[in-house]
Amino acid sequence: MDLDALRYGNFSKLGEAITDWEEMAKNLKTLAEDADKNLKGQADKANWAGVNATVTREFIDKTAGEFTDAHTQADTVAKILSDTRGELIGYRDQLNAAIERGVAKKLTVGDAGDGTFFVTASIRPDWYSDPSGGKDAASQKDVNDLRDEIQRILDKATESDTTAAKALRLIVDSAKYGFSGADYDNRDEAAKAIKDADAMAKILAKNPHDVTNTELASLNANLAKYKNDPLFAEEFATTVGPKKLLTFYAGVADPYQGQYDPKRAEQVKQLQKNLGNTIGQATLSDSDKMQGWEQQMIKLGPDQLGIDDASNPTGYAVMSNLMRFGDYDDQFLNDYGNKLLDYDKKVNGEGINLWVNNANQGDLNYWGYKNDRGRDPVTGFLEALGHNPGASEQFFARPDVTEYTIGDRDTVDKASELNEHLKYLTQDRVWVSDTTLEGDHDYVAGRDALGHALEAATTGYSYDATAAEIKAGGEHRTPATAAVMEEVAYLYGSKDGPKLLHDQPEMADSLGKMAGAYIDDIDYNLSGVGEHQMDAGTFPAAYQGRANFTNEGAINFLSVLGQDEKSHSAVTAAQHLYTLSALDKYSPTSDANIEHAHDALIAGTQARGILDNARVEQAATDYGADSEDANKSLGRSADWIKLGVGAAVGVGVAAIPLPGTTAAAMVIAPVAADTVGGAVNTFIGHQIDKGVDAAEADPREQAQLTSSDFYSKGINQMGAAYNAYIDGDPKIGDIVDGQNWDQDVNAAYYGTGTGENEYRGRAPYKD
In angstroms, rounded to a whole number, what is the distance separating the alpha carbons of residues 99 and 462? Predict the structure, then answer.
């Protein structure tokens, strides 16, 4: 900051600009509110079809979001400019006051150009002829003190000006198209984020073995503090650079460097998560710097880093462990994943695996370490997709549809319509267990991660979304997520489906959750006569471009999922809750409602029969019919009813806890009614099964069921749902009795449900 620039600074033009920005922010706020309530609100209510259901609607949603970001950016710019103007005016006043005090002390201050200035003592001409006349001249100390004071003022003004400029450039550059969502109250806040990012980057510039636990703690604290701050994230990432990020983490994370320190290990564990979150935030920037950063990171992927740590890992091996955490740019993840799988196809095989072998001791994953050492980079990448639904949906998108045809797509009916990534990861890739000596050697973390990625791709939620997030978020399914679900149902409902499920047990819970998320569409496909007369009145589409599995495809898919205890439990719980919510929705207040309730109950009972029959047949195949082990397996499968306790129901969706997997695992089930009624409440309170439980006083019978008992329990639970509908109203009971509902329910469960697999559906898997 030049002395004269600040001394004579006229900030009126800047003041006018600030007024304009503030007015713009005010107007944009109004437009953003209008776009959300009217533009997006009307779009959400509209009955879209065809291209409009995808391209137009997505455009409207993004446009409404851009208005919000535009307001945020304008408001932030106005605040930073206003704060900076106020600071510079303050520094100008301080400078002029200091100069005036200097004049009183007979000091002269001047601008010397090129950012320099001078301070001298004033000399009157007569002092040269009469030196005694200069006794009142300023001392050298006075000169030095004023010079130092002015320099401090100029330094502060320079910092205010340059940090404001840097923050504004970062904000504007971060969104090449559209607007940034960066939100700061003042210049100081933005400047501190940048300053702290630079300070943390200096830690990563050090040799990782020289970094102390105290420094790691400081690094973790700041990364956690700024995990959602776009300026901090971009400044940190670009200052550190891709390769130094990788070599630093590999250096501090290598557990075989030096003596094991549990305190340091805990810091590194948190660092893995915090770095992942921060780098993910940085990739959301569209600036040229970050675009170059991403390209360089992808280029580093297949090459070893040239270090002594962690078995000299490749870039993929390190970055894939960091990206297990964080919200990443969808395109970056897809570009990274495309290159990773291309490379993986070349190096992964039956013999010596490049990733998982005795020579590779690059254990860089500190989360679930016993069963997942982190040596296979495909596992970490799939975990990233599991936390990034948009990226995952793109990665597994159907190849036979485009954004213009996805709303009117045909159902998947041949392998050529399957995504190549999906085919490779489910059918062709050689998966290897990556456990420690203390881990479960039969467990393959990569297949579990694949299930997580597909959950995100099909549900629109992170695989470990919480009940609160699901309840508040509502419906996230789209034509694109449904298209991926159609691929999954075709693949696992095919003749090879039973073998796939048997060979990939880690995916069973995820497959059950995916089917549970689409149980309304499955019931719709079961409701017709073959492929005809499907009941859109009873099962209206909850979102545009609903999934179409076909009648046979739905039966095949359910018959495979019923074979596994975990997938059976997840989809059965979702089915039961959805059927009960339909009975609540179609309360017996009209003939039309009663007819819809009947059809919902029958479709739900048919689905339940298919699932239960598959479970009984698989248990008999695995252990022998009615053997003790088979009966124990059926006893475990009958416990799904307990999942209803603690279910959280929102508008359009419910979150059903699924124990035995991840801590936050939830089945995201659609619900038919906008409000919870008596039937759903009895399920959540675990009362719908009270009639069955009462008949099982002996705990041994609850834990061990014969196939006959298992079927009895199943039909009794459907009967209890039937009773919940007519309970308390004898007239309704007479009506449904006259319509022979009891016969229809029994026929659906035993005839077209459990008996269906005699001529349709998939046979149990046999070794």
Answer: 61
Residue 723 region, left (φ>0) first, then alpha (ψ -120 to 50), else beta? alpha
**pLDDT tens-digit series, residues 482-526:** 999 999 999 999 999 999 999 999 999 999 999 999 999 999 999
Rounded to the nearest 5 degrees, what angle is found at the Cα of 391, between the Cα atoms of 227 and 344?
A: 105
CA atoms within 13 A on the CB side of 504: 28
326 and 279 Cβ atoms separated by less than 8 Å = yes
**Cα–Cα distance between 280 and 33 in angstroms, integer?**
29
Kindly report the backbone phi and psi dihedral angles of residue 130, in degrees, each rounded to the nearest multiple of 5, phi listed first: -135, 80
Q: Residue 397: what residue type? A: A
CA of residue 695 relative to chain centroid, distance: 44
| The pair of three-digit structure tokens given for residue 225, joined into one six-digit string | 């503090």
756: which residues sit within 8 A by CB, 6+ positions away? Answer: 555, 559, 606, 609, 610, 613
* Range 152-170 burial, b when 16+ CB lie within 10 A, else e: ebbebbebbbebbeebbeb
Sign of CA dihedral 152, 153, 154, 160: positive
pLDDT digits (tens, 9 = 90+) for 76-129: 777 777 777 888 888 888 988 998 888 888 888 888 888 888 888 876 655 555
Q: Is 49 helix (H, G, I), strand (E, B) or coil?
A: coil
* Residue of 257, 282, 94, 77 whose CA lies nearest to 169: 77
Structure tokens at 413: 């009916």
Length of the chain: 767
CB within 8 Å of 586: residues ≥ 6 apart? 538, 593, 594, 596, 597, 600, 672
Q: How far apart are CA 38 and CA 387, in angstroms?
A: 31
Can you tell me which residue has the tokens 């509502």? 474
Q: What angle do CA 162, 168, 169 make, to 5 degrees?
A: 90
Residue 51, helix vs strand vs coil: helix
d(CA 485, CA 417): 13
**Cβ(512)–Cβ(568) under 8 Å?**
yes
Q: Give pLDDT tens digits for 665-691.
A: 899 999 998 877 888 887 886 554 444
Name which of 280, 669, 684, 284 is nearest 461 in CA terms.
669
Structure tokens at 35: 């776009």
Q: Which residues contact 88 (CB under 8 A, 6 or more apart)?
A: 6, 9, 11, 157, 160, 161
User: What's the CA gap between 460 and 54, in Å, rounded?
Assistant: 15
Higher pLDDT, 17 or 297: 297
pLDDT (tens digit per residue) in 623-675: 998 899 999 999 999 888 888 888 999 889 999 998 765 556 899 999 998 87
* DSSP of 253-281: H-TTSSS--HHHHHHHHHHHHHHHHHHHH
Distance CA 697, CA 716 (A): 16
Distance CA 207, CA 605 (A): 64
Beta partners for 116?
113
214 vs 157, residue with greater confidence: 214
For 401-452, write each residue's pLDDT tens digit.
Answer: 988 889 889 999 999 899 999 999 999 999 999 999 999 999 999 999 999 9
> How many other β-carbons are positioned within 10 Å of the β-carbon of residue 561?
31
Query: Tokens 């360089």 appear where?
Result: 296
pTM for the structure as a whole:
0.83
CA dist., res. 692 & res. 695, Å (int) = 5
What pLDDT does residue 257 have? 67
Q: Give the span between the Cα atoms of 603 and 748, in whole angstroms.
A: 8
Measured between alpha carbons, how far is 125 from 29 in angstroms, rounded to an integer? 65
Report in angstroms the alpha-carbon separations of 319 from 12, 280, 450.
Answer: 50, 11, 18
According to DSSP, residue 408 is labeled G
